[in-house]
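Action item from last meeting closed. Structure (213 res):
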């Protein structure tokens, strides 16, 4: 296999899926907690992974997704909506958030992506811990954003100025250290419409694959 030339993660699909026990309804691995997946750890050389029964219906050999339905992983623009602490930030902070070209830091992992660039604000301070979510954009004391990712904690005390739109979070997740990110503020309704369009695209891909079988 050739090395990755774009994106941060590579996904492999297996007919029948990897047959490992479900934990909380998922077969994925949570590495910080050492549970789930294959013995709660990363896969290493010489591991043998059991596969489940092959599905009864599969796409025809050579089937590929129509290009127009693929997410734009090469796009630097990421849509965001106002977060639960949006009112703690003034107009200048919002201008810096939406007009700065941030760079993904090497201090980034599945817990959160730290961004480098102009400080958004350093005056909001810390808050009592409250619920958080994947995609939340936190502003710590140094004023530069941290975007919470798949393994993020469920609570936190940094102010959350915004949240990455659900439809764009997979696109943002593929940004590698050193790559540029720009934020575009949209409404909740626009974010919901984008997610519905993405769900429709996925349905079309599935239906097209089934029809080609």
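Sequence:
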């Amino acid at each position: 296999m050739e090395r990755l030339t774009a994106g941060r993660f590579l996904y492999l699909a297996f007919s029948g899926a990897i047959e490992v026990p479900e934990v909380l309804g998922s077969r994925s691995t949570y590495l910080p907690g050492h549970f789930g997946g294959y013995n709660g750890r990363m896969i290493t050389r010489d591991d043998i992974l059991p596969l489940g029964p092959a599905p009864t219906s599969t796409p025809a050999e050579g089937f590929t997704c129509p290009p127009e339905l693929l997410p734009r992983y090469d796009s630097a623009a990421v849509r965001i909506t106002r977060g639960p602490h949006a009112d703690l930030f003034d107009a200048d902070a919002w201008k810096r958030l939406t007009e700065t070209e941030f760079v993904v830091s090497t201090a980034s992992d599945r817990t959160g992506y730290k961004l480098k660039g102009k400080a958004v604000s350093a005056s909001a301070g810390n808050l009592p811990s409250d619920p958080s979510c994947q995609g939340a954009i936190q502003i710590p004391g140094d004023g530069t954003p941290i975007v919470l990712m798949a393994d993020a904690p469920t609570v936190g005390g940094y102010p959350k100025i915004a949240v990455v739109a659900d439809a764009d979070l997979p696109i943002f997740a593929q940004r590698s250290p050193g790559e540029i990110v720009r934020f575009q503020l949209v409404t909740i309704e626009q974010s919901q419409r984008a997610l519905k369009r993405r769900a429709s695209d996925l349905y079309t891909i599935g239906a097209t694959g089934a029809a080609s079988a």
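Note appended to the action item: The longest strand covers residues 102-108.
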